[in-house]
Specification:
There is one protein chain. The protein has about 425 residues and is an alpha+beta fold. About 30% of the residues lie in helices and about 30% in strands. It folds into four domains: about 90 residues, Rossmann fold (3-Layer(aba) Sandwich), CATH 3.40.50.20; about 55 residues, Dna Ligase, domain 1, CATH 3.30.1490.20; about 130 residues, D-amino Acid Aminotransferase, Chain A, domain 1 (2-Layer Sandwich); about 90 residues, Glycinamide Ribonucleotide Synthetase, Chain A, domain 4. The strands form five sheets. Strands 10, 11, 14, 15, 16, 17, 19, 22 and 23 form a nine-stranded antiparallel beta sheet that branches. Strands 3-2-1-4-5 form a five-stranded parallel beta sheet, with helices on both faces. A hairpin with an 8-residue loop joins β7 and β8. The structure holds adenosine monophosphate (AMP) and glycine. The site of adenosine monophosphate has 14 residues, from β8, β9 and β16. The site of glycine has 8 residues, from loops.
Length: about 425
């Protein structure tokens, strides 16, 4: 069967690399893909949000199964459109992808079904939002309702900072329509853990836990990014906490979505905070995380295509998902200045000198005449698997040494707090 992966970042490279191992796939396509993906899949020049173009590309290439990885085509209903076109697609339908595309929706869902999360209020009126901040004080968290590339969240230490965030979202329209509704919520404390789960709407199977590093600079300083590196599994996620999360969060979320007539098939991303009062949901995403997917899928032993088909065909309960022992670490090499302002088009050198045990997932790269060039903020994800978390981290940092490009920036402390 021919398979098409929609997207073109590090996550999609990791998905393609895992699918590439399946015997059941004839030709693997990716749209739009990137420089590294083009080495293992046929890249098609279709934008990830172009639903009609994607369906045409799938038909033209006799594709029998599609994987929709990024948030925006999911929110636009690309999976629904493929289903209507008679092509099975992995990912939630639009009415379930809303758990990511509307924070107000997901907060209301959690309240209705008693799923633990930070206390919150939703506002469409700016003056009411500003008055509420005066009433409750800081620290407090301000979130744009819609998709904002992971940047629509302000953890404000002062009332003034919180009010500025509201003003920028609701008055200046910093995030466009995504900011016309804001969610203001209680500030939580504790370690953060990400758990991605496969679900077919009836059964939910957690993957290994992971931890992203969202800030741009060492010591969790600087602006929020899409993610500067991730490790898996995280030692903070003990088996006791895992059992509690399954019972109090994962299953109730799945059941809530079904009860609301929005059955979820695909990957649910649970962003959790292990607070002194137990695990609570920080956010849901309707897809694999980036860069969490890079270390997680590096640890997967089971055929990923087999799992994807079991999800779409609602027989996930019949699949045994196996993971490697040990741990994995992915360090993101970014363009200097990311996430604010950065240049592209620099040649990347040294990729051919990376040692054999290291996997370099490409994110923002382009291949021209056999050479790779930077084409985005996050450029590469250097990933190592090893027996322990400490050795995986040092292997990833050792592994990235030969690689360089102009103004390359990466965090030196991925996973450091966890060992
Ligand atoms: P989100 O996009 O909702 O995951 O938020 C981005 C980051 O902001 C999270 O990873 C947390 O570090 C932080 N954050 C979000 N909500 C809260 C909260 N209620 N309390 C403390 N930190 C938060
Ligand atoms: N790494 C965070 C995300 O994928 O949303």
């Amino acid at each position: 069967m021919n398979v098409l992966v929609v997207g073109g970042g590090g996550r999609e490279h990791a998905i393609c690399a895992a699918l590439k191992k399946s015997k059941d796939i004839d030709t693997l396509y990716c749209a739009p893909g990137n420089g590294g993906i083009s080495d293992i899949a046929v890249c098609l020049p279709v934008k990830a949000t172009d639903i009609d173009g994607m369906i045409k590309a799938a038909r033209d290439n006799n594709v029998g199964f599609v994987v929709v990885a990024p948030d925006d085509p999911l929110a636009l209903g690309m999976v629904d459109a493929f289903e209507a076109a008679g092509i099975p697609a992995f990912g939630p339908r639009k009415n379930a992808a809303i758990i990511e595309s509307s924070k107000a929706f997901s907060k209301n869902l959690m309240t209705k079904y008693s799923i633990p999360t930070a206390a919150f209020k939703t506002f469409t009126d700016m003056d009411a939002a500003l008055a509420y901040i005066d009433e409750v004080g800081a620290p407090i968290v301000v979130k744009a309702d819609g998709l904002a590339l992971g940047k629509g969240v302000v953890v404000a230490q002062t009332v003034e900072e919180a009010k500025n965030a509201v003003y920028e979202m609701m008055h200046d329209g910093k995030f466009g329509a995504s900011g016309s509704t804001v969610v203001i919520e209680e500030f939580m404390t504790g370690p953060e853990v990400t758990v991605l789960c496969f679900t077919d709407g009836k059964t939910i199977k957690p993957m290994l836990s992971s931890q992203d590093h969202k800030r741009a600079y060492d010591g969790d300083e600087g602006p929020n990014t899409g993610g500067m590196g991730a490790i898996c599994p995280t030692p903070n996620y003990t088996s006791e906490i895992a059992a509690r999360c399954e019972k109090e969060i994962f299953l109730p979320t799945l059941n809530a979505l079904r009860a609301e007539g929005r059955p979820f098939k695909g990957v649910i991303y649970f962003g959790l905070m292990l607070t002194p009062n137990g695990p609570k949901v920080v956010e849901y995403n309707a897809r694999f995380g980036d860069p969490e997917t890079q270390p997680i899928l590096s640890m997967l032993e089971t055929d990923l295509f087999e799992i994807f088909r079991a999800v779409v065909e609602e027989r996930l309960d019949k699949i045994d998902i196996k993971w490697k022992k040990g741990a994995a670490c992915c360090v993101v090499l970014a363009s200097g200045g990311y996430p604010v302002k950065y240049d592209k088009g620099y040649e990347i050198t040294g990729l051919d000198k990376v040692s054999a045990g290291i996997t370099v997932y490409h994110a923002g790269t382009e291949k021209k005449d056999g050479k790779y060039y930077t084409s985005g903020g996050r450029v590469l994800g250097v990933t190592a698997v090893s027996d322990t978390l400490a050795s995986a981290i040092s292997a990833a940092y050792e592994g990235l040494k030969p690689i360089s490009f102009e103004k390359m920036h990466y965090r030196k402390d991925i996973g450091a707090k966890l060992i």
